[in-house]
Specification:
The longest helix is centred in the last third of the chain and has 26 residues, at 62-87. The radius of gyration is 17 Å and the shape is elongated. It has helices at residues 2-19, 21-41, 62-87. The protein has one domain. With 93 residues, it is mostly helical. Helix 2 crosses helix 3 (62-87).
């Protein structure tokens, strides 16, 4: 039974990820913007080997930005799955 539940959760996660791809990307980008603003206000720049020292470089830059954004998106999906499991458990049975 647990295997079936895990399989169903994985299928639902894949389905939701596809359906909500744009929303997840927009939400994670918004969260990254919030981080960027706070870092900029405090003159904090995350080191990255892609930096050239240009004044217009963002506080989170290059591959580091995309890695963080991807992790934020994963966390948003995990949160969504927890909500489904808590408030609509029959969706994964």
């Amino acid at each position: 039974m647990e295997n079936t539940k895990n399989d169903n959760m994985e299928k639902l996660r894949d389905s939701l990820s596809g359906l909500l791809s744009d929303e997840l990307t927009e939400s994670s980008a918004y969260i990254m913007d919030v981080f960027e603003e706070i870092l900029a206000e405090n003159n904090i720049y995350i080191p990255n080997e892609d930096r050239t020292g240009a004044e217009e470089e963002a506080c989170v830059y290059g591959e580091t930005y995309y890695e963080m954004e991807s992790k934020v998106e994963d966390e948003l999906m995990d949160f969504l799955m927890k909500l489904v499991e808590k408030y609509n458990p029959q969706a994964i049975e």
